[in-house]
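Notebook entry, structure prediction.
Reason for the run: the old model in the group folder had no record of what sequence produced it. Starting over properly, with the input documented here first.
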Amino acid sequence: MNILYIHNKAQISGGEKSLINLWENMDRETFNLFLAIPEEGKLSEYARSLNIKVFLLKIPQLNLLHCFSIFRAHNSLISLIKKNKIDLIHSYSPRNNILGAIAAKLLRKPIIWHERNLPFDNEKDISRQLLFLPDIIICNSGAVAKRFEIKDKVPDKVKTILNGVNVKRFSANSDTMTFRHKFNLDKRKVVGIISNLNKRKNVEYFIDIAAKLAQKRKDVQFVIVGDTFEEQNNRFEELNKLISNFGLEDQFTLTKFVDNTYEILSCFNIAAHVTEREACSRAILESMACGKAVVALNEGGNPELIENNISGILVEPRNLDKFTDTLNKLLDNDVLCSQLGEMARKRITELFDININTKLTEDLYKQLYKDNE
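New structure, fully documented this time:
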């Protein structure tokens, strides 16, 4: 079966890691994979390393100003599907979804839209308005699936497949001291976050929490692991300035994304997560897979990942004092941190292993293909 993925980014962050994990674990004797992507980047490089055929296809914003570019992109997509005998399309992001759906309808091919975000209040939910276009919508959490509710019922075409983690890559017993030395961390306890650094990820809130916690104790260091994209390439400067304004330079480390996330996670005593409207956080899942105590916000898809006070701790959004106090208590209670971490890894192993995610996705592909014959 020939499957075409239409993706919107060349960089690799949480969503792309989920896609890569799927590719790595699929039955490649059954599924032949193709990727359409707007430009070359780390994702296209990685795809080629997995013997996935890559095509450059830039789909412009869907408005009248780009009508000729849209027409060219549509023709290129039609040609790509025909030439490579594509059986099924799996697309990401609204513009790819819409153009992909039009091409799929014309060529009588099934199409899956993948939805992995929770729009903010001021954002239009285009995918909900165009629910009639795709054959299936995969949502990465129940919270995302609720976007498509009609009279309090999620339509049958909307399926929830939670993100998966390759548990074997994450260990709760890594060589912590070696990795601490690698990332220039001393023996103080570490509270860290892993996050895309764009502004909607709310990284400043973590710095606010750190500043409040630092008033109570100096035996802790804070780590931000993340990266920026071209449109926000001054984010490191902005965050460092805020850290400097609080006088926290000696307690903070900022580093870019690392290829082997478990290395930096092994240095954490506590993994924090401060993003609001998060659908299914890969950072949370990977922290739990590493057996770390996680403190996150009690909203979005987070409650589907963490059982509060069992496999992590959930704090109500925008309650800085509560978040700070929770971290402070955990830093003083190594036994509780270990218990939360053990239960977190157990939960990931039982419910979020990548093999579960892969099988559900492959079964969906097979059913759609069969229905379309």
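Summary: The mean pLDDT is 93.
The old model has been moved to the deprecated folder.
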